[in-house]
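Example 4.3 (complexes with small molecules)
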Amino acid sequence: MFDTLSDRLTAALQTLTRKGKLSDADIDATAREIRIALLEADVALGVVKTFIARIKERAKGAEVSQALNPAQQVIKIVNEELVGILGGETRRLSLAKTPPTVIMLAGLQGAGKTTLAGKLALWLKKQGHAPMLVACDLQRPNAVTQLQVVGERAGVVTFAPEPGNGVGDPVDVARRAIAEAKHAQHDVVVVDTAGRLGVDEELMKQAADIRDAVEPDEVLFVVDAMIGQDAVTTAQAFQDGVGFSGVVLTKLDGDARGGAALSVREVTGQPILFASNGEKLEDFDTFHPDRMASRILGMGDVLTLIEQAEQAFDQKQAEKAAEKLSSGQLTLEDFLEQMLAVRKMGPIGNLLGMLPGAGQMKDQLAQVDDKHLDRLQAIIRGMTPAERADPKMINGSRRLRIANGSGVTVREVNDLVNRFFEARKMMAQMAGRFGF
Ligand code: GDP
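Answer. The structure with guanosine-5'-diphosphate bound is encoded below.
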């Protein structure tokens, strides 16, 4: 996502960095490049026009700054304006003063609503809430079962109409669900509603009826970022038909050009609350306009990386490993633990993609392979605890046994063991030098 846009914007801005002083003509030329980049990324025309006009106006009228050179000033302006069209401040979910908070999901079929319900439930649960999912998508065959499955995976209760009563009334289901949530003390209720392949009146009416019945604290419009320009028209239709208080972008992991993400907030005036970037329940997070902007401009997303690392790493375990490292006592067991912690943060390519300058390392990143890590993990798991603790004892016959047990070649086992020793030696030296 955003790769081409990011490349083009970076290129447009890089030509500036070579200049000491910027003329109006320089600014116009850069603005033209940015305009093309945005249009190619499928950003709505109106949004592009406003954006470019603001950049030009601000860049030409910029005060002479002591701290920044003219090029840096333009980059700063573009960054600020990008943050602006993405919504400015991070908008958090608003919770009801008296529970339950009711969150209703609306959007086209296939937008990712049901998946999102599971993601949201897991996310809420991790924050100490007791969410309940409600199946009000009674149109699509299997929608109820699908919600029950994601609910189970997230470890939360799903309220659904009893099977065998024909197609139930979603408004009635929604009402009963709220009563049940109060009774069973669920503090957040997530209502999944039906979607259609295209916008139609009946769909809007049903969604509006459910909205009136449950009086939601948030109506979240769920939109597939891959649908490009259509995202904007769909968003407008839902805004007129049901109204919503926030947007969730899904499928940001796809290779779409990203225009939806950049247009929807500006066009509807409603903030983007969450972003989804994969099919797994964990592939989901709060949307931060500032971080997204710096990612688009190729400045990396160090903040997100740090946050994810904080969540994935157990501080004590990390300290223990650091201690062993400095004394050259790191075992394969520690190595495996660290590797698993890194894995918890997501696919390795995604992680590296958040680092500053990663845009220019794309080819190398493409070669970082999660499957390779899986194999390393399989090899270490194929060792006995004694072997992991003291890899020196892994002789030829042990290597053969480990290779057979984990379905790899002896050469791969050799590679891992040799590299481990090398790394251990090197890290001990480094630890000595840097004093950690
Ligand atoms: P609904 O009809 O709106 O309820 O949509 P679903 O939740 O059934 O999702 C439609 C399809 O999109 C499913 O195959 C999901 O696995 C997939 N999907 C949902 N969210 C994402 C996402 O963020 N990334 C990717 N790649 N696929 C997703």
